[in-house]
Amino acid sequence: YAKENGRNTYAFYSPELSRSSYEHFRLENELRTAIERQQFLLHYQPQLEVGSDGIFTVEALVRWQLKSGELVPPDSFIPLAEETGLIVPMGEWILNSACSQARQWNKKGLKIRVAVNISGIQIMRSGFVDVVEKALETSGLPPYLLELEVTESYVMNHIEGVVETLTRVRELGVTLSIDDFGTGYSSLSYLKQLPVDVLKIDRSFISDIPKDSDDEKIASAIIAMAHNLSLKVVAEGVETQQQLQFLKQRGCDLAQGYFIARPMTADALEDFMRDKSRTVYAVS
Ligand code: C2E
Ligand code: MG
Ligand code: MG
Ligand code: MG
After folding, report:
1. Relative to the alpha carbon of 200, which ligand is closest?
2. d(CA 247, CA 225)
3. CB count, 10 Å around CB of 92?
4. Mean pLDDT of all residues in 52-74
5. 40, 97, 103, 196: which could form a disulfide with 139 (CB 3.0–4.6 Å)?
6. Contact (Cβ atoms closer than 8 angstroms) between residue 223 and residue 250
7. Which residues line ligand 1 (CB under 6 A)?
């Protein structure tokens, strides 16, 4: 029995559990160190203005750069950063470096607006508006060249808590967009209450166009609804010419995805923007 008890007690710390909590602990510490040492890197993905074929906005996407040089994608550390609150200092670093990068580009004559993903945890922290204001001030970036992306699900679930903050941020002259739109169970009426400028249609509604005619209908409906509310629409995850063609026919304003360009380093983006021979995406 003693043995059995012992085993049962031990079962609580099953190898699997202890490994995973150890992993968790190790990852948290590594993340903390990485923040202190600023071992992150931003990649930038262009958004194509479907009507004019121009590029004005790029989305900043964070990567964790390991000593080996390997880049860890955000989905494998943002959730932990949010859980531990580390997203707050990390998010501040991201915002500051995106703003100063955009300011550099604009100084060099490249007219680029940067869109930065903001975690709900950051918005809920008091002082978020000051953080944004300070990032603009320190970098010297004009507010209209900054866009902030907030996910639909977060905003929906914390509507009372975020409206005032978002309103104040928008009053600074910053553009606000709702990310991953269509995945957050919105009652559409809430959109009217929100101080937003842009809807980003989630990739899941784009990836099966034209195979899935329901997705085509959903994407079309989102575009029409956004326009009725005087919002701009970005389609995320555009991977084919056919998808771009479809979006153009439906009057979608902007397209982002591998068909246009993958996320790339700041230097590569600069080359991309200056490349006059860059593929023209014009579709009829
Ligand atoms: P998101 O904001 O919806 O960003 C779009 C994601 O889709 C990016 O993944 C991008 O690389 C990917 N993507 C773009 N075009 C295509 C395409 O044509 N096909 C496919 N399959 N994927 C495409 P990434 O960079 O791995 O970022 C994933 C998520 O991590 C982001 O989703 C965002 O929610 C979060 N994230 C990224 N950077 C930040 C950040 O700086 N702060 C915060 N809080 N979250 C971030
Ligand atoms: Mg985003
Ligand atoms: Mg998205
Ligand atoms: Mg996403």
Report:
1. 3
2. 14
3. 18
4. 94
5. 103
6. yes
7. 45, 60-62, 73-75, 78, 91, 94, 117, 119, 149, 179-180, 203, 236-239, 256-258, 263
Pocket test for ligand 1, best of 44, 61, 72 (most atoms within 8 A of CB): 61
Q: Which atom of ligand 1 is closest in space to residue 263's alpha carbon?
A: 11
| Residues 183/218, Cβ–Cβ less than 8 Å | no
Find the 5 Cα to ligand 3 centroid distance in Å. 49
pLDDT digits (tens, 9 = 90+) for 254-280: 999 999 999 999 999 999 999 877 765
**117 CA → ligand 2 middle, Å:** 5
**Atom number, ligand 1, closest to the C-alpha of residue 119:** 44
Is the complex ipTM higher than 0.95? yes
This prediction has a pTM of 0.92
List the residue whose alpha carbon is closest to atom 22 of ligand 1.
Answer: 237
Q: Is 189 helix (H, G, I), strand (E, B) or coil?
A: coil
DSSP for 217-269 reads HHHHHHHHHHHHTT-EEEE----SHHHHHHHHHTT--EE-STTT---B-HHHH
Helix, strand and coil percent figures for the chain, each rounded to 5: 50, 20, 30
Indicate which residue's Cα is closest to atom 37 of ligand 1.
Answer: 61
**Beta carbons within 8 Å of 94's beta carbon, 6+ residues apart:** 40, 42, 60, 62, 116, 117
Which residue, 180, 108, 109, 106, is CA-closest to 146? 106
Q: Chain-centre distance of CA 279, in angstroms?
A: 25
The tokens for 5 are 């008890």
Structure tokens at 139: 């970098």
Angstrom distance (rounded) from CA 39 to CA 31: 9
